[in-house]
Every structure is written in structure tokens, then in C-alpha cells.
Amino acid sequence: MSQRLSISATIFFVLALALGLYFAFAAVQGPSGILRRIQIESETAELAVERDRLRTEVARMQNLTRRLSDEYLDLDLLDERAREVLGYARADEIILR
User: Fold this and answer.
1) CB 96 within 8 A of CB 86
2) Which distant-in-sequence residues (6+ apart) come within 8 Å of 73 by Cβ?
């Protein structure tokens, strides 16, 4: 005698399987899934590198600004900037481009 599952048991197992597959798919592909988390971690690392680069650039610009301020005037930097912006050179200098 062969045992067969009743229709209600078959429907229950099919629904349980479908729900299990749905939640497994959502865990991998969903908005809070594993793949999205990997993508976010990668973007976070890239943004941290960009943040560090920008911090370095800001520090450099603050240093240059301070060196050209009224309280602390770096004459060498002022001379360099004036030459670069205005295109001046001394008579004894050779300019290479």
C-alpha cells in the first residue's frame, strides 16, 4: 500500500518551500541583503579614502592661507605665488616649460 500525502499537507509543504525560497532570496538580494551590505562596505571604504584625501588637502590649504595671512607672512611663498600668478621672473632666471 502506497502512502500519499493529503492535499492539505502537500499545499502546506509547497507554501513552506515557497516562503523559505522567498526569505532566502531576500536575505541575499534584498535591500538589506548580503550583496547590498558588501556594496555598502565597499562604498564606505572608498569614501573613507576620499575623506582622508580631502582632509590632507584642507590642511595644506589652511597652511598656505596661514602663511599668507597678516599675522604670519611668508615672503618666499608670497614671492612664489606672485611669480606664478603674474608670470614674473628675475633677469638672472631661466624658465623651463
Assistant:
1) no
2) 67
Cell of 66: 596661514
Name the residue with cell 562596505: 41
Per the DSSP assignment, residues forming a β-bridge with 73 are 68
pLDDT in tens, 67-95: 888 788 788 888 888 888 887 777 777 77
Is 34 within 8 Å of 27 (Cβ atoms)? yes
Specify the amino acid at residue 16.
Answer: A
Distance CA 68, CA 74 (A): 6
What is the greatest pairwise CA distance in the chain?
A: 112
CB atoms within 10 A of CB 65: 9
Beta-carbon-side half-sphere exposure of residue 15 (alpha carbons within 13 Å): 6
Q: Answer with the residue of higher pLDDT: 1 or 66.
A: 66
